[in-house]
Amino acid sequence: MKILKKKILTQTPDTRIVRMEIMAPEIALKAQAGQFVVVMVAREGERIPLTVVDTRPSEGSITLVFQEAGLTTRLLGQMEEGQSLYALAGPLGHPTEVRRYGRVAVIGGGVGIAEAYPVSKALVSQQNEVICILGARTSGLLILEQEMRACCSFLYTATDDGSRGTKGFVTDVLSGILEKQSLNLVYAVGPIPMMRKTASLTLSKGIKTIVSLNALMVDATGMCGCCRVSIAGKTKFSCVDGPEFDAHQVDWEELGARSGIYKEREEHACRLHLKRLDS
Amino acid sequence: MRKQPVKARELDSASRINGFEEVVLGYSEEEALAEAGRCLQCKNPACIKGCPVGIDIKKFIYYITQKDYASAYLAIREKNNFPSICGRVCPAEYQCRKACVLNRQDSPFASEEAINIHFLERFAGDYGINGSPGAPALQKSALARFKVAVVGSGPAGLCCAGELARQGVRVTIFESLHEPGGVLRYGIPPFRLPRDILDFEVNSLKDLGVEIRLNTIIGRTKSLDELFREGYASVFLGLGAGVPGMLGIGGENLCNVYSANEFLTRVNLMHAYRFPQFHTPVNIGKKVVVIGGGNTAMDAARASLRLQKMSGLEPDTTVLYRRSEIEMPARRLEIEHARQEGIAFEFLVQPQEFSGDEKGFVKKLTCLRCNLGSPDASGRRRPVAIQGSEFSISCDLAIVAVGLKANRLLTQSEQGLSVNQDGDITVDQQTMETSREHIFAGGDIVGGEGTVIEAMGMAKKAAAAVIEKLKKA
Question: Which one of B253, B257, B271, B444 would you mutate to disrupt binding with A, by most A Cβ within 10 Å of its Cβ?
């Protein structure tokens, strides 16, 4: 659970995206694309799920990438090389179903780009033609562009403010692609509105679409049901039934609402934390 | 004149709801002696047959009357590894106390005249914890060349580990969470089971040489085959019944509709009642409904009421149950405590649908009133909804506590473990061995939702069979 390497991938005035390589020999042997681990920063900490971005079984390490947003990710971002996490468990969730689909678009939004990376890599290894679309609010938050470029046939970028690539959303790029060519699969991971938009675009075109949901979790082993999502009207647990689901069957409204259950408390805890840092 | 039963002292209800302190204070020595003195020491003690693990109740109570508390403790320990825990959580009124000859009531549970066996067990157990007799010593044995893996650190796992370690077997417990204890840690709140009692039992296993590996999910982090390859001769699966059952009604995934497991895990395991000092939040409703009639429902309701009180709200938590009070499976003491603390009860109601506000948060629950029909498979009268009796209860937080199911995380990741339709692992009833040789199982993953002592009984049986097999190896 020791942090072997830490790199600030990007920094803007309001947030940072951090990459950490963590000692976890047993997990490194097992984790596959699409799976996640649970992390605790301290005894008082929360249990949060983070996608396994990469593994180095020979060195016994796994790579995690996270954006400092809530209290736990901020505290994690403050940890340094040589320090150890309080708890780390996994791998959890079903791996991505990696097979030969044909032409696939892999879409990553924001820190979701890091989560799209292992999936893209795995799909390429199965002789798929992978088109990557990376999106972020602004160019400063566009991460892993080089790494992604190395594991796809074409790479497109989009930023909300137009500071890099297409000005607009990843869905604008996707719809441009769909005018010219057909796709056998779309895989999307990122903020809920981005995945939802992707889903509605591909639904109208009848393209199979997989999304990786980032529901709130506690134990992440199927014990608490915090991560309940409605899939085609049936309740599923993201942690053990997912985290990937058919995008066209997700109840996005419900997922969006449930993701914000603790917004106020979370902000309160962050404010207290920042105050402590100031004093 | 017949002597009056001795009640255990308790924190008063007005002050105890300001925190998570243990409610029942237990017996003083005088009180224990007075209660033990009421025992008739029957020639044919029915109480022992009422105990799922057959503790020699007559004997341990006799030792208490003789002020030989160490012997009383050891007499319980012959059958029950955790007297201090069972003395606190056993539903004695449905078991040993119901069988007591002093019981004057023809009802599903014992009357107050029955000997307070559980309070005496707790007295003897706490005497043991406070150091004097210590746990029965580790035996030097030829079994020390064997390693056994125990999966899960709940009641079944802890008990099995203790049984094996005392025989000299080298035991490793694998726990998926970051703290050991299973349901004793995440499910049962500290006001019923103080954490120092649980920590004591866990630590005494460590003193016996048991290694506990936290954050290790067998089936994921490591497979069963890998355990065997690492040299473990046998594996015991005490996985528990970890998956919350839901009602399956509309609106159940609205915000602030919790499973009791989630609510209690946040509060107990993650210490959400100390937010933001601890970072895991839990929402606190102004008006809370808890659905269910078991111990989990009582625990969730009482935790909710404490959170309301601790955050300056007027306590307002209501338990909804589809049968009547007498059919409630909860311990009678928990129902009594809940009522003293200000929990309201609505009986004979069947939830129909949750509805929410524009932001997706729950705001009311629509229900039907029920009558009781003829008894069902459980022997309790079946609730029958009355058509047209629809009414609604406003609430801004709801907790669903309607039972638990088997967690399939391991059984789905592994080949060859046979399970029944409920996902419970099927075993040989004599040895607790599963369909895979050298893999044993016990506790809720075998029997479905049961009690701590039943889990312990299965774990002991499995441990005996494991040892039998090791001796032949």
Answer: B253
